[in-house]
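Section 5.1 Outputs to date
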Amino acid sequence: MKLLLCGYCKDIRAVDVVETTTCRCGKTAAKYRDDRWRADIWGDDCILLGLKNDDVYPLLAARDAPEDDRRAAELVAQPPWHAQAHYH
């Protein structure tokens, strides 16, 4: 799963599989390429964040769990030199 983080409005949005995802202020956008592993990103003050797909469902399942049973997941910044991020 990829997340678009806008440096202007500080909005974080999950990149949609079909539609182009735009932040709240409209200055940044992202869209998956056909293979869903890579994404195109537009905007000069944004970053693409990656979350392992295998972590999404356990996070959702644990959201109402007691604090001791909560799960954590690692977000990885995918800067312009990352193979899965194509900044324009």
